[in-house]
Structures are given as structure tokens and as C-alpha cells.
Task: structure prediction
Amino acid sequence: MSQPRVAIVGATGAVGEELLRVLEERRFPLSELRLLASPRSTGRTVTFRGEAIEVEALDASAAPAVDIAFFSAGADRSLLAADAFVRAGALVVDNSSAFRMREDVPLVVPEVNAHDLDEIPAGIVANPNCSTIVIAVAIAPIHRAAGIRRAVVATYQAVSGAGAKGLAELEHQRRALVAGEPLRSEAFAAPIVGNAIPRIGALGDDGLSEEERKIERELRKILGAPALRVHPTCVRVSVDRAHSAAVHLELDRLIDREQMMAVLEAAAGVRCVEADLATPRNASGGDDVLVSRLRADREDGRRWDLWVTGDQLRKGAALNAVQIAEHWLDRRDG
Amino acid sequence: MSQPRVAIVGATGAVGEELLRVLEERRFPLSELRLLASPRSTGRTVTFRGEAIEVEALDASAAPAVDIAFFSAGADRSLLAADAFVRAGALVVDNSSAFRMREDVPLVVPEVNAHDLDEIPAGIVANPNCSTIVIAVAIAPIHRAAGIRRAVVATYQAVSGAGAKGLAELEHQRRALVAGEPLRSEAFAAPIVGNAIPRIGALGDDGLSEEERKIERELRKILGAPALRVHPTCVRVSVDRAHSAAVHLELDRLIDREQMMAVLEAAAGVRCVEADLATPRNASGGDDVLVSRLRADREDGRRWDLWVTGDQLRKGAALNAVQIAEHWLDRRDG
Result:
């Protein structure tokens, strides 16, 4: 089949820039690349494979004819413009939360549920929430092997989860702190340098933050486990670009350490690093989700603790979206 | 009774400096203050209540005659010198891990188990681990009200937990990062700026780190709950001086939100800050442990999640030690 025409909506954001990098690195086959963004970024040029591409304004009433459109410009723009791209013939891979819980939209982490790409009734595939992806890659193989009944999750989320403005704010605050200047906060509700902010998104009536609700609902959908109990606490930390989580699992079935290690070592997208420190700094820039600190409870072998960390902009966003497109192309052309 | 003579062993460390500040702020009654430290710091002078005090070398064979000795110079020095101070007539309040699990040594958070000061058979009272204190203050009132069966704990621990050298390392690395210089790590096993290190202390055969084992054992002893199940994951984060934790509790008995709020609002040393963000930056410099993000599980009202944060150098160390001494004085003089 012919190489696909590709568009990136939100090409100048933190995830958009990472999408360009991942498409280059993976030699993603494409015959044309259209870059779209808000009027603020229109007219800028971006270099892709040595070629300068001008950024166009996103116009929901005149979607370009492409085969794959990566959306990473926030839920509002996805709601506004995704349908136009679908009508113009594109598969939309949407990085926002706009469509994730829609029944006719697969929510896919390819290592976990690529089979959900068999049917794409609305022409849209949703890329899960970034911390959810990192956690799902690590725990899905455990779920397949021993059944996860309950997961208690505490996250350590990077500022890049709030996009380029989050990254800029941490850098700016580091400079201000070193210079003894006052800290200004816009991207986050409090200074993030030297801090931990235990709320990501607005709180609902049940006390869960938006981010926590995403982790709960999306993990259930991705794992195909509607009865899974999830107890998340989501925290923004002074880290640049990889998300981490401390995860406590209650399993249906006993699994010994040897089996657990075999399961994780065989899992796609996972790298066990028991011998070394799996820090977000080490995970940054890489494709794998790092898993370490794997511990069975001494008294109950169905309880396990682990630490996971993965690059939020790559596996948590851009890489996962490109992998979805690759799987879709394989199916289309296979 | 006469005002006590006081000694601080480890007077020039991060906790030692905070001890001096807390003794001043609380107008702790004392007739004499002796400051002791390692030979490196001997001869320095420290100002206390406007008076310059010279730092003396610690000599285990010639303990000064004091009534209260605060030890904060590491477990080795406590093991070496505490007995000499006891023999010379002092109550030793030890901030290290040296004596905490000894049956003849009370391990005390005054808001929780001041009654354990009724008997001090060895002349030593142990100050608990810093993250343990912060967590214990918050969950002890819940334990009294509804019984805690199990606690899953993920910590976000400040660099001050590693003392003055930890604080200096984060500051130095911030400057290096801003200046584009290489990061050097000595206090921690990896760069801590912009990072999270999921291991505090050496790992044991059961996979728990030293810090995790302390939280488990010390919580059981402080709460008087030997059957309590604790699942800790301890993580060092890029925060200066307050420790935080995401805590998931499984209770013996149902408790509704109104009761839970009443319990916490009546609890000494706790401040509920549901309306605001309870960040380690906000907790720093204060005496209270801040509690927020209090959530009952929607399906099981015996499961609660909460976020706690408290100043590691104050309530997590110096303040708690001074409070122990105050309670002891009350008993002695009462």
C-alpha cells in the first residue's frame, strides 16, 4: 500500500515535538507531513528529516486529506476538529482525554491491548493518560499472569505532563531559586521546584482529582478489568519528564518471585532494573518502562509492591501514539 | 525543681541546629547548655539566646554531668556514648536508630504514646524515624477511632533526611543544572535534583530498604499494634525539608467522613487543610503535620486515602525530641 499522509495537530507543543522526534527515529513511513497548531504558532517552520515544514493554522472546517492525524492540542481542540479529519478520511490518534471513555473509541497501549484496534468504529483511537500508560505497561503482564484485584497507586509525576509550559516553569523556578528571586507559578497551583503538589486537575465530589479518576477508569478499560479496584493518589513532583509510581498490588493468585521475574522479563516495553536505580532521570529519553523494587509481602504472596518509571513524553504520549499508528498500518497493509 | 542542664550531641548537624532553634522558640527551661560534636566542629561557637557557646569534642569516656542529653550524631556515636551520659545522670533522647527497637527503650511521639514515658528503664528514650513520626501523628487518631488493619505508604522524602550534606547537595546540584555543569552525587546514590530515588538505605533480603523496615517496625511499636500490616515504599525526592506520604488505610471499623474530620480536627499536632494545598513547602518551618486529600473509597467505607506532610527537621526530629523532654520534665516535676 502507499505510504500514509500524516498530520500532527499541536505540532509545536511538548508532545508534538516529541512526535516529530519519534517519527524520525522510527523511520515511520510517510509520504507527506502536515503540521498544524494554534494561530500563535502558525508560520513557524519545523525541520523534519532535513526538510523545513511550515506550521499551518488548524481549521476545523477544512481538514487536510491525510491518512493518520495525531492530535495533541488539548481536549477542546480534539472535540472541535477530530471529526473533520475522520470525515476527510483519516484515522485520528488522539492524545487528549476527549474520547477515551467513549465505548466506540478503543483506548490502546499496544503492548497490552493491540487487539482492541481490530474495530475502530468512530475512526478515532485514544491514547491513554500518560501516567496510566506507564503503569499499564508494567502491571498488564502481572494481570495476565495472576489477576490483579486491587491496585494502590501513588504517582510522582513530571512537570512535562503539563506540556511545554510545565517544563519551562520548573526551569524558570530553578533559576529564580538559585538567584534568590521570588517564584512565580502559572502552570501549577503552587511552586513546583523543591515541592510536591498532591493534586493534578480539579477535585470531584468523591474527592478524586481528574488525574486520579483517569487512572482508575482508563486502567479498567485498557486491562479489560471493569471490576478492578484502583486507589490512586496523584502527585506532581519536581521532575522534568518521566512519570513514576509506587504500586501495591493485591492479586487473585499466588505467584512466586521466579515466575514474577519471568513474566516481567518477557513483557514487551518493560525493563527490569533490580540491580540499579530506576529513577525518572534514567527513564528519560528511553522507550522502556523501568520496573524495580519488586517485593512480595512476607506473609501474603498475593501482595506485591513495585516501582515503575517511564518517559512521559515518549511512552506516556508520543511513542505510544506512533506505536498505535504502526499497528494500524500493519493491519491495513497486512 | 531546678532547671535542667542540657547537652546536644551533634550540635552542628542539620537536626542539631534545629534543636537549638526549637529550644529557643519554646523557651525551654535550662540552666546550662553544653554543645558537643565531632572533632571537625570542635572550637566553633554557636549563639544561643544571645550567648556564644563553644562546641566541645564528644568524649565517650568523660560525659558531662547534665540532666537531658539530646543525641543527633548518628547511630554509631549514640551506641558509643549514650551509656556514659546515662551513667552521669542524664536522660538521653536519642534521634538515631540505635536503640529504637530495644524493648527497654520507649519509642515516643508525644501526641501518640506519651504514656510510654512512664517507664524509662535504660535512661534512654528513642526519637522515631522522621517519616515515621510524620505518618504516626496523622494516622494514630484514626487508629484509635477505627483501628488500622493495613497501611500502604508511599513516601516523598526531603533531602534534609540525609542531614546538612543532603541539603547542600540539592542546592549545589540546582546551581550546577542551571549553569549547565555536571552533577556530582555524594550524599545520594544518584542526582537528586529533578529526580526521585526509590531506595533509602540498603536493601535487605526481603527486598525492603532500611527506611521501609523502620517505618514498618516503628509504626507497630508507636501505635502499640504488633499485628499492623504495613507496605511501605520510600522514595527520596527533590524537596528541601519536609517529608510527605500518600497513605492508603484499611480500617477495622466503618467511619464516615464527618467522624473522620472530627477525629483529625481534634488531634494534637495535626492540621487538616482540605481547602488548600498541603505541600511540603507549606509544611516547612511549621510544627503541625498537614493532612489533606482525605477520601473514603466509594464502595468500601473502611478504606481511606490521605496525604500527609510535615517538617522533617522539626516534628520529624528536633521538635519531637524537645517535646519528649518537656513531657519528661512535667512528669519529673509534677
Notes: Residues 57 and 266 of chain A are 44 Å apart (CA to CA). Chain A has a mean pLDDT of 96. The domain at 5-128+317-333 of chain A is CATH 3.40.50.720 (Rossmann fold).
